[in-house]
Amino acid sequence: MTDLIRVVVCDDEELLREALSRLVDVAPDLEVVAAAADGRQAVEAVALHKPDVVLMDIRMPRLDGIEATRQIVRATPVTRVLILTTYDLDSYVYAALQAGASGFLLKDAPSERLRDGIRIVASGNSVLAPEATSRMIEALRPELPDETDQVLLRALDHLTEREREVFDLVAEGLSNQEIAERLVISRYTVKVHVSNVLAKLGLPDRIHAVLVRSRLRGQL
Where 4-aspartylphosphate occurs along the chain (predicted)? Predict the structure, then answer.
């Protein structure tokens, strides 16, 4: 049996917190172990339960999601933080990523995208909301690996045809589940391809795949 991915849901709006908890719990491989109404409660819940993933709001009373993320990542490195945001919070999201968050999704993301996002960050990878990446790219551009465009292009040439398809879809912000449906392959196969692509390109996570694709867009 596959181990359950244990989740803490943190949002100061009670109805949304309950809705997110139900949305997560409906998946057989996901389990909500605690809910928090602010960042301080989230930090305490993580210390108590040692979850795999925290779904974290940003603007909250007492302790905001950015500082809560920083404290969680520092104290409990095994726990990954997935930020839930809206279109107008790009600067906050960037700060949260700098604090150690593993990515972000929009609060109105489709249910399966959110669940798959949890699975992605639990596996050690990162995820970006495909609808809200454009303004993030310029802010995150300095985080690109210190490589020339030609080196990156040569690395792309070493991808198989299928790996190139997966790279393009990852760079568009699609989740593993969405890529699997697009290519009519299993989610496990997608996961293997993503790992191979990141290794061949020397990239640490999916976020950098988005940035590389943006950087080389005019040369591909």
Answer: 57
Cα–Cα distances (Å) from 23 to 45, 65, 85, 109, 125, in that order, read 19, 21, 17, 12, 21
Q: What is the DSSP string of 120-177?
A: HHHTT--EE-GGG-HHHHHHHGGGS-S--HHHHHHHHHTS-HHHHHHHHHHHTT--HH
Torsion of Cα atoms, 47 then 34 then 36 then 20, to 10° = 140
Find the angle CA(206)-CA(4)-CA(127) to the nearest 5 degrees.
Answer: 15
Residue 74 corresponds to which amino acid?
R
Q: State both tokens at 73.
A: 């990542």
Q: Environment class of residue 8 by beta-carbon count within 10 Å: exposed (0-12), middle (13-18) or buried (19+)?
A: buried
- pTM higher than the cut 0.90: no
At position 48, the amino acid (one-letter code) is L
Strands (DSSP E) contained in 13-86 are: 30-36, 53-56, 80-85
Q: Token pair of 43, please?
A: 């930090």
* CA separation for the pair 208, 142 (Å, rounded): 11
Q: Can you list the domains of the chain with their CATH numbers? A: 5-132 (3.40.50.2300), 144-219 (3.40.50.2300)
Give buried/exposed letters for 20-54 (b at 16+ CB in 10 A, else e). bbebbeebeebebbbbbbbbbbbbebbeebebbbb
Q: How far apart are CA 219 and CA 182, in angstroms?
A: 25
